Amino acid sequence: MGNAVVIIGSGLAGYAVARELRKLDSSIPITMISADHGGFYSKPMLSNALSTGKTPESILNGDAVQMAAQLKIAIRPHCRVVAINQAQNTLTLVDGEEIFYDQLVFALGADQIRLPLQGDGVAKVLTVNDLDDYQNFRDVIKDKKRISIIGAGLIGCEFANDLVTAGYQVDVIDISAQPLGRLLPSAGGVFLQQKLEAAGVIFHLDTATQSINQIDEHLHLILTNGDSIESDIVLSAVGLRPRTQLAEAAGIQINRGILVNRLLQTQCLNIYALGDCAEVEGKILPFVMPITHAARALAATLAGNPTPVVYPAMPVMVKTPACPTVVSPPDLGAIGEWQVETDEDGVKALFKDEAGNLLGFALLGVATKEKNNLTPQLPFILK
Ligand SMILES: Cc1cc2nc3c(=O)[nH]c(=O)nc-3n(C[C@H](O)[C@H](O)[C@H](O)COP(=O)(O)OP(=O)(O)OC[C@H]3O[C@@H](n4cnc5c(N)ncnc54)[C@H](O)[C@@H]3O)c2cc1C
User: Fold this and answer.
1) What is the spatial distance between Cα 203 and Cα 131, in angstroms, rounded to a whole number?
2) Which of 17, 43, 94, 272 for mutating ligand 1's site (highest number of atoms within 8 Å of CB)?
């Protein structure tokens, strides 16, 4: 195997693998190609940056030039890869330039899903999925007051908490009957909803956004339950779709994400994927901790020591200061039941199988302090 490693993507996944590989090998040539500015920043900060006064400049840890020097790699910012030629081991940039690789890593991330809504205000709907989006979002919400968020999942709830703390009027709409419907049993959803409502968030649950129309300076949302909301800004946070097009067009197998085995390897043996674009043995885990584990394993593999990724349980902290929350959802299809203890200070929900084994948890309020005791009892996600 040769040794020119090319990484497509400069998100947490691209940087994690570059950093880990550089630790293992000080001389292997690494090139990172990115459609964006190519700088390093922590994406999770974007959903709690406003209330903490963080600007895009303060969130950026290092621009492409600084990071290239620090990691001793080449970085090509603002270069979109448009094709992969497996037979030649080359990729093509949008301007036609061809770049050779021995080993290629997809760290392409995921797109925010856009709902097919009606109305002439739909084009104004914003998403925040990277630092440039966050810059745009800050510019647009300046001098505005009312923000509607479509989606009460992790990102929607975090933005709701952040925006309400920063002084905005916030409406949140979700088809589910509770916030964090996919992650929390209903008692947890109720608790989180109450805390966010106490902070000022207005929820519209069990209903969908039907249309968004521009009326003068404002956006008028009509919901399927007949309610309407007047808003200045609409932020959509309804989920992510792994970026698979580049791989698919190159004939690499995809499913919901780019399909890889435990070596993070596609069926094309010198092409790998990790992060939000990857589906590892059927699992798409769009969070930071899986990237950390995957990057370490992949770096070892790229350095010549094939290393399968291992995922321990990886609880996710939800950044809603109005209601500290940590979740480790049971695997899809896990058989068991939630056992829930609720009081005014928190919710402790444990998902157990018939034999009493802990398969997942949701901890809210004071119960979050049990995270460290409970996490070692959880099964590995990939052992
Ligand atoms: C607001 C928000 C808050 C979050 N909070 C948390 C949290 O609290 N905890 C947690 O664990 N996770 C959180 N997440 C998820 C976490 O941030 C992501 O899992 C992680 O950042 C994904 O990193 P990535 O490198 O896979 O993808 P990305 O960061 O999306 O990077 C993809 C890169 O690929 C580049 N790219 C794409 N296509 C091309 C192309 N054709 N050519 C060249 N370059 C290309 C892009 O420009 C980009 O540089 C949050 C996500 C968001 C949006």
Assistant:
1) 27
2) 43
